[in-house]
């Protein structure tokens, strides 16, 4: 099952998700259909969790999610799912715990990369569009994650399995 190649947040009730409904990113809300799409396409999920009053969520949205070039890379490589942590604290808690178990400091926006089955294999928080603040640029991150997925898929899946067993 594949969903339309467009942003699907316009009908969502969450004010935070509504804020992203005009992004060129083909955002999906967390749903069985979104997860099924990732499995059908055998494409990793880019999960972005945030909330309406989050400063760095707005910065990342402005720098990356509103940018046509960045969105094109996201849309080509991932199934992009946006979650409002105030609407779905359960999802936020699961993936924040996974990030912590990777040895990373948590915060928002939470940016996680998941297998098509929803198992986390890498993540972080805010990534600037261009490399700065000692952090890689977001497109660099997207391309590195895609390369790992394409070239080392079984290893990535095994790492995700180990992580979810211990998280």
Give me some keywords for this one:
alpha/beta; Glutaredoxin; five-stranded mixed β-sheet; 15% strand; globular
What would you say the CATH architecture is? 3-Layer(aba) Sandwich
CATH class: Alpha Beta
Biggest sheet record: 5 strands, mixed
**Based on helices, strands and strand pairing, what is the structural class?**
alpha/beta
User: Percent helix among the residues?
Assistant: 40-55%
- Name the shape in a single word: globular
Provide structural commentary.
This protein has 167 residues and is of the alpha/beta class. The chain has a single domain, classed as Glutaredoxin (3-Layer(aba) Sandwich), CATH 3.40.30. 46% of the residues lie in helices and 15% in strands. The protein has seven helices and five strands; from the N terminus they run H-E-H-E-H-H-E-H-E-E-H-H. The chain has a five-stranded mixed β-sheet, sandwiched between helices. Strand 4 (110-114) and strand 5 (120-124) form a beta hairpin. It is globular. The protein starts with 14 loop residues before the first helix and ends with a helix. The model has no long low-confidence stretch (mean pLDDT 95).
């Amino acid at each position: 099952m594949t969903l339309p190649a467009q942003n699907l947040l316009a009908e969502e009730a969450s004010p935070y998700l509504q804020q992203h409904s005009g992004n060129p990113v083909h955002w999906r809300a967390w749903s069985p259909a979104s997860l099924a799409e990732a499995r059908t396409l055998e494409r990793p999920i880019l999960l972005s969790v945030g909330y309406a009053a989050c400063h760095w969520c707005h910065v990342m949205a402005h720098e990356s999610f509103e940018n046509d070039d960045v969105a094109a890379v996201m849309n080509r490589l991932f199934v992009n799912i946006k979650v409002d942590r105030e609407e779905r604290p359960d999802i936020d808690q699961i993936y924040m715990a996974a990030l912590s178990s990777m040895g990373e400091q948590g915060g928002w926006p939470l940016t996680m990369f998941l297998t098509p089955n929803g198992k986390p294999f890498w993540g972080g928080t805010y990534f600037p569009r261009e490399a700065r603040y000692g952090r890689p640029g977001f497109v660099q991150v997207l391309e590195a994650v895609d390369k790992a997925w394409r070239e080392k898929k079984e290893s990535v899946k095994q790492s995700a399995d180990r992580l979810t067993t211990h998280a």
